[in-house]
Amino acid sequence: MPGLLIWGIDTSWMVHLHLFRLNHMSSPNACRIYIWLYLCISVIGACSFLC
């Protein structure tokens, strides 16, 4: 069940990203980096969940 594990990590990242955005709205650069990291992890998570 590696897909399910990564999906759980993906969900925790989404929560983490949301909290990060609430705390650091004054820093758009860091926000952008987090969004890119989150997108990469989402794609990897989705692929392993479907495969």
Concise synopsis of the structure shown:
This protein is 88% helix and 0% strand.
How would you describe what is shown here?
- With 51 residues, the chain is mainly alpha-helical.
- 88% of the residues lie in helices and 0% in strands.
- The protein has one domain.
- It is elongated and about 35 Å long.
- The protein starts with a helix and ends with a helix.
- Keywords: Membrane, Transmembrane, Transmembrane helix.
Features:
elongated; transmembrane; transmembrane helix; 51 residues; mainly alpha; single chain; 2 helices
Q: Low-confidence spans: pLDDT under 50, at least 5 residues? A: none
Instruction: Work out the strand percent.
Output: under 5%
Structural class: mainly alpha
Secondary-structure element order, as H and E?
HH
What's the tally of helices?
2
Residue share in helices?
over 70%
Q: How many beta-strand elements?
A: 0
Measured between the Cα atoms of the first and last residue, the distance is: 11 Å
Averaging pLDDT over every residue, what do you get? 71
Radius of gyration: 12 Å
Number of spatially distinct domains: 1
What coarse outline follows from CA principal-axis ratios?
elongated
> How would you characterize the largest beta sheet?
none
Question: In terms of topology, how is this protein built?
Answer:
Blueprint: H1 2-23, H2 28-50
Helix pairs in contact: 1-2
